[in-house]
Amino acid sequence: MNTKHSFLIESFIGLGSLLLIISALGLYILNEPVRIVQAQDEVLALQLDEAMTLYAENCAVCHGLSGEGMGATPPLNNPALLTMPYEDLYKTIARGRYQTAMPAWSIEDGGALSDYQIDELVTLILHGDWGATGDRVVNLGLAPLIPFTTEADPALLAEIGNLPDGATLQTAVTLFAANCVSCHGADGLGTGIAPALNDPVVREKTAEEITRIITFGNTGTLMAGWSNILTPEEITALVSLVQRWDEVPLGTIPAPDVPIAVTEESLALGSQLYAANCSRCHGPEGQGTPRAPSLNVRSFLTNTNDQAIQQIITSGVPGTAMPTWGDRMTEAEIQAIVGFIRQWEPTAPEVATITRPGGGGPPWRNNNSTMPNVLPNTNSSTTMSGNSAGGQTLMQSLLDWRLLLLLGVLLSIAFTLIYSGWDALRHVPKKAG
Ligand code: HEC
Ligand code: HEC
Ligand code: HEC
Predict the structure, then answer these.
(1) What whole-number distance in Å separates Cα of residue 10 and Cα of residue 54?
(2) 294, 374: one domain
(3) Which of 31, 44, 136, 352 has CB atoms 3.0–4.6 Å from 297's, for a disulfide?
(4) What are the backbone angles phi and psi of residue 182, rounded to the nearest 5°?
(5) What residues make up the domain containing 91?
(6) Are residues 132 and 214 both part of a single domain?
(7) What angle do CA 91, 137, 60 make, to 5 degrees?
(8) How confident is the prediction along the chain (433 residues), in pLDDT tens digits per residue?
(9) d(Cα 271, Cα 195) in Å, to the nearest integer?
């Protein structure tokens, strides 16, 4: 290459770089206001993000999945609230509304939220996206039970009438099913948001103390006072239910039959958790294997509601290979699996086509009498539960084909880099010489 030529090229490069620097600087200056707005937007987005979680954890139980309100609790997605002064909204949340179920939330007033968190919640009410908030509530497994109430089992309710002072218990069971079950759970066994009342520890409390809690509530918790909703006689009946719960048969107050809410994220999580933990026994598509029954079959899905499936997964099936998952997965994770399994229902076959290495033979689910015989390890539940199951899961996810693919790509990039580095080194001495 001659010198004149190379000088021209160098000037071009110099000029080009100068132009690039000038235009970059110009763009930067022009962009500064945009950048500031973007930064503000980011802060707002962060606040809204935190507020959605706060809403899910503290407010959804009364104000509904997406701020739509529930029963007597007003909606928060109400356009009228947008014209309410900031101060008033803030005070309502911080101090609660006296003589209503709306608790005080500020730490000053015995609640659990800081001033900053209350401010974030006001921001959510004024600028939030209620659809996204609803998704957050579901993803955290905190979707409130709707309907908020359940019906007592008629046969068992009649049976309770035969107990001493049975009429009082009957009244209390009906009241509990209508007002308390959404938080304190079926048969008073508790939920993620409120403690069990059907519990020896609670039974030991004095009638006065239980009466006080139900009448006035516990400040700063979801437990509101019921004095302006229930009569003193009704509260007395509920107190005697709490104290005599051991006499009330299980199943008297069933869980509300509510389909578990799902979102795109929860279905993806459910699918991933199913693949990692359940498919080796129940088959990748829930078709069943010789180790465990099919779940993707019409009869099972129509006869078993979401609460029942959640219960089975949480507690396992004692005396079989079906492990207890409640101690290794959160409620939200188990609900995500239930949502994923429920998705099979519309296309579930009448008869399960079980994956079975030997082939042939009637599918297990459709031949109940042979069930225990086909199960190879019915009695080895102890070896299947616990950490061994977790270990196998890890191995399986390590062997996931996507991971292997990624590893392959990374390896080839590394090889290319090493090769080109070595090639460059090899050529250096030649140029110098
Ligand atoms: C235990 C049930 C319950 C919980 C939990 C609850 N609220 Fe309320 N909330 C109510 C009730 C009931 C009212 C209506 C009070 C009234 O009659 O003025 C209310 C009213 C409100 C109002 C005023 C609405 C209006 O139209 O005037 C706001 C705002 C509000 N709540 C926000 C929240 C926020 C934010 C949370 C979570 C930090 C929350 N609430 C948790 C029951 C609840
Ligand atoms: C919005 C949810 C919610 C509803 C509805 C609700 N509770 Fe509670 N309840 C709670 C929470 C949360 C606690 C625990 C409060 C605490 O931590 O001190 C509680 C505590 C209690 C306690 C004290 C338990 C103990 O271990 O000391 C009693 C008794 C009780 N509730 C009875 C009732 C009755 C009866 C009803 C229906 C009339 C009812 N609750 C409705 C949330 C609720
Ligand atoms: C080690 C094998 C094994 C694993 C892993 C396993 N299960 Fe099971 N599962 C079983 C067996 C065996 C049964 C049948 C129990 C019985 O005889 O009632 C069962 C029963 C069930 C049932 C009730 C089916 C019916 O027809 O009543 C459900 C629902 C279920 N499993 C869901 C799951 C889910 C969800 C997972 C993953 C989180 C899982 N299982 C993981 C072995 C397994």
Answers:
(1) 60
(2) yes
(3) 352
(4) -60, -30
(5) 32-139
(6) no
(7) 40
(8) 455 666 777 777 777 777 777 777 777 777 777 888 888 888 899 999 999 999 999 999 889 889 998 877 899 999 999 999 999 999 999 999 887 888 899 999 888 899 999 999 999 999 999 999 999 998 988 887 655 678 899 999 999 999 999 999 999 999 999 889 878 888 999 877 789 999 999 999 999 999 999 998 887 777 878 887 899 999 999 999 999 999 999 999 987 777 888 999 999 999 999 999 999 999 999 999 988 999 999 989 988 888 889 888 988 887 888 998 988 999 899 999 999 999 999 999 988 776 654 333 333 443 333 333 333 333 333 333 333 333 344 455 455 556 667 777 888 888 888 888 777 777 765 554 4
(9) 31
Give the Cα separation of 38 and 77 in Å (integer): 26
Q: Are residues 268 and 241 in the same domain?
A: no
- Among 146, 184, 191, 244, residue to substitute to test ligand 2 (most atoms within 8 Å of Cβ): 184
Residue 2 counted as domain residue? no
Question: Facing residues of 73 across strands?
Answer: 70
What residues does ligand 3 touch, defined as CB less than 6 Å away?
277-278, 280-282, 291-293, 295, 300, 309, 312-313, 317, 320-323, 325, 337, 375, 384, 389
Q: Are 39 and 75 part of one and the same domain?
A: yes
Residues 223 and 134 placed together within one structural domain of the fold: no
Q: How many domains is the chain partitioned into structurally?
A: 3
- Whether residue 402 lies inside any domain: the answer is no
In a domain, 421, yes or no: no
Q: Measuring from each residue's beta carbon to the nearest atom of ligand 2, which residues come in under 6 Å? A: 61-62, 179-180, 182-184, 194-195, 197, 202, 210, 213-214, 218, 221-223, 226, 238, 242
Exposure of 156 in the CB half-sphere (CA atoms within 13 A):
14
Look-up: residue for tokens 């509304």?
97
CA dihedral 178, 180, 181, 185 (to 10 degrees): -170
Give residue for tokens 């519309």: 346
CA distances from 156 to 163, 251, 383, 386 (A): 11, 8, 39, 37
Q: Let me know whether 235 and 274 are in one domain.
A: no
CA of 371, closest atom in ligand 3:
17
Within this chain, do residues 207 and 110 fall inside the same structural domain, yes or no? no
Q: 221 C-alpha to center of ligand 2: Å?
A: 9
